[in-house]
Amino acid sequence: MNTCAPRPIVVAQAASASHCANCDARHRSVCNAISTDDLERLAASAIPKVFAKGQLFIEEGEKAGDFFNVTRGTAKLYKMLPDGRQQITGFASAGHFLGLAVSDTYAFSAEAIEPVELCRFSRSKLRVLLDDFPALEKRLLQTACNELVAAQEQMLLLGRKTARERLASFLSTRIAEAAACGEHGSTISLPMTRAEIADYLGLTIETVSRTFTRFKAEGKITLPSRDEVQICDLDWLNGVASGQDHHAFA
After folding, report:
1. Per residue of the chain (250 residues), what is the pLDDT tens digit?
2. Do 225 and 116 share a structural domain?
3. Looking at the structure, do residues 137 and 187 belong to the same domain, yes or no?
4. pLDDT for position 235
5. What's the predicted TM-score (pTM) here?
6. 8-state DSSP, 9
7. Nearest by Cα to 99 from 59, 150, 148
8. Which of 87, 158, 163, 209 is most buried, judging by how many CB atoms fall within 10 Å of its CB?
9. What CATH number corresponds to the domain at position 235?
10. Average per-residue pLDDT in the chain?
11. Considering the domain boundaries, does residue 9 fall inside one?
12. d(Cα 28, Cα 134) in Å, to the nearest integer?
């Protein structure tokens, strides 16, 4: 006889209008397409979720039934190679909208690399929102276009840039994302490991570590901690990222 107690039924709790109004990521996410007066409608379709570091919330190949709007924290996006290795294709932070799929299944996996907060939208509820708010559909189209541009830039990064240019491009992008969230200081957070950065940039971990060390030795960056980088010369960084580097090495 099975004496195990039945698993309790957990009912997902929708967000509140105040939750959406006070969301730090709203100004740079797709949700910004919906006016403050209509936040009640938006909130009724969103399920707030929290994932601890290491938790998977999108799995490659699974049915793409939900969309995810990241409101806090960082997740790594990756695909599995036939030999079982991971290939990191990007990092998603506050304001990123995930789950747009051209097929019925997810094309990548997403895993929290630090505590992540997000809002989950079911496909059916998002469809209703898109029907009622054309501006939201326009914003999602813009998001899809931005993802295409990002994919093209990643191809250029992996195919043509040196190690210095790749790391500078990565740091420059992190600065731009922090600025979009209202963080305009010269110190940026790097919650990903050096190995994860190397995987994303198509380099070895030794090359990434060596490049960080050379940037520091040149007085262009400081490393307050393992998870932070302070940029001492932003113009220099952007110059290296765009290929204007006289100290390039492979």
Report:
1. 444 444 333 345 677 778 788 888 888 888 888 888 888 888 889 999 999 999 999 999 999 999 999 999 999 999 998 888 889 999 999 989 998 876 789 999 999 999 999 999 999 998 899 899 999 988 888 888 877 777 777 777 777 889 999 999 999 989 988 877 777 778 999 999 999 999 999 999 999 999 999 999 999 999 999 899 999 999 999 999 888 776 654 4
2. no
3. no
4. 93
5. 0.84
6. P
7. 59
8. 163
9. 1.10.10.10
10. 86
11. no
12. 18
Report d(CA 160, CA 243) in Å as an integer: 10
- Structural domain boundaries, residue 232: 162-241
State the total domains in the chain: 2
Distance CA 56, CA 111 (A): 4
Do 166 and 152 share a structural domain?
A: no
Compute the chain's Rg from CA coordinates.
20
Measure the CA–CA gap between 65 and 245, rounded to whole angstroms: 45
169 contact partners, CB below 8 Å, separation of at least 6: 157, 161, 241
Structure tokens at 195: 């190995």
Please report where in the chains the tokens 């006070």 appear, as a residue: 22
